[in-house]
Amino acid sequence: MKQTPNCPSSRPRVWSFRIDGPLLGYRASMARAHDPRYKAYKRLIRLTANVCGVPDTLSTNSRVTVIVNIFWKRRARIDNKNVRGAIEDALWTQDRRILEGYDVAHEHNGIEYATVAVQIREGTDAKNDTRPAP
What is the dihedral of CA 100, 107, 112, 76, to 10 degrees? Predict the structure, then answer.
């Protein structure tokens, strides 16, 4: 019986980290893109991701999933998809390989922050994964 090697590149890699508030939302406007506060927010997220080892570029055969849990001090101030969008925007400039994204908000926690989990599948595992997005 022939044994297939257990290649690390075919297994999903997972990273997780926390972003302390105040959280910002993504807006696809030029005014927002040049906002110094938004630029600093993106730099902070990318720096945190770098410390955790999240790659700063994605290969063309990657399949990326981003999961964001948003914790609000009181009630939600920003749409979930906009918080996740700002995080994805900060993580990668070329983010077309993010094929799945999930976000959940938790209100009335007394503190504002987000936890982020990034899963990257590469190689044959990513190509053969044909599960439809939910």
Answer: 70
Residues with Cβ within 8 Å of residue 62, at least 6 apart in sequence = 97, 120, 121, 122, 126
Pairwise CA distance, residues 124 & 134, whole Å? 22
- Peptide bond between residue 36 and the one before it cis (omega within 30 degrees of 0): no
Tokens of 42: 């993106």
pLDDT in tens, 81-127: 999 999 999 999 888 889 999 999 999 999 999 999 999 998 755 45
CATH number for the domain spanning 89: value is: 3.30.1330.70
Q: Which amino acid is at 65?
A: T
Query: Could you tell me the two tokens for 52?
Result: 């955790």
Q: Residue 59 carries which side chain, given as an amino acid letter?
A: S
Report the amino acid identity of residue 49. A
Band of the pLDDT at 6, cuts 50, 70, 90?
very low
Give the number of domains in the chain: 1
pLDDT digits (tens, 9 = 90+) for 12-24: 799 999 999 999 9
DSSP 73: S
